[in-house]
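Write out the 3D structure for:
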Amino acid sequence: MTAFHETLRSLRVWDTTLPAFDPDTAPADPLPLFRQWFVAAAEAGQSEPHTMSLATVGPDGLPDVRTLMLHDADERGWHFASHATSTKGRQLAADPRAALGFYWPVQGRQVRVRGQVAGGTPEEAAADLHARSTGALASALVGRQSEVLPSREELARASEAAWARAEAEPDAESATWTVYVLEPREVEFFQGDERRRHVRLRYRREGDAWVRELLWP
C-alpha cells in the first residue's frame, strides 16, 4: 500500500461531538438559517468559513468548479465577484445555471445552493471592489484572469504595476469586475452525525414560497 493510500485510509471523519440540528425548528426561509450556521461556524473556529465552491457549466457541457469567497447573502441571493472575462464569467454569460457548496468540517455541516446567477450593476461592482483590501484591488487591476500566462516574470511585472496603481489610486476602476448574485431555487442544509444519522433539510422554491423537506442521508 502506498503512502497516499495509507494516509487516506487512516483519516477520521467527525470523530468528535457535533452540534444537534432539529429541522422542525428551522425557519420558513433558508436565508436566516444560513446566516445562523455561518456565524456559528466562525465562532466555532472554522477557518475561512466564507470560502465556497462555485460550480458552472462549460460550453462543452462539462461541469467546472473552483473555490472563491462569499461577499454577501441577502434576500436577493448569494453574492460573489469576479471578472466578466474570466472562465467563470464567460460560462455564466452563456449559461447562468450554477451551484454553490459550503463545507464547515469543525461542525460537520454543509450547505448547498442551486439556482440562476444574475449580474449586478456597475455601481455594485465599484462598491464591492473598493470595499476590499489594497491587495484585492491590485489583483483585480491585473486582470487577464484565466488567460494563458507566458511566464511568472510577466505576472510579477503586471502585479507590481497594479500594486503601485492601487496604492496611488484607491478609487481605480476595473472595467470587467462584476458582482454576481446566485438567486436560489434550492438550498440544502446537511448536519453530520457521529452515528451517520445525518440530517438533510432541503428548501425548494415553489412560486413565491419555500417548501421544506427531509432527505435520506
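The chain has a mean pLDDT of 94.
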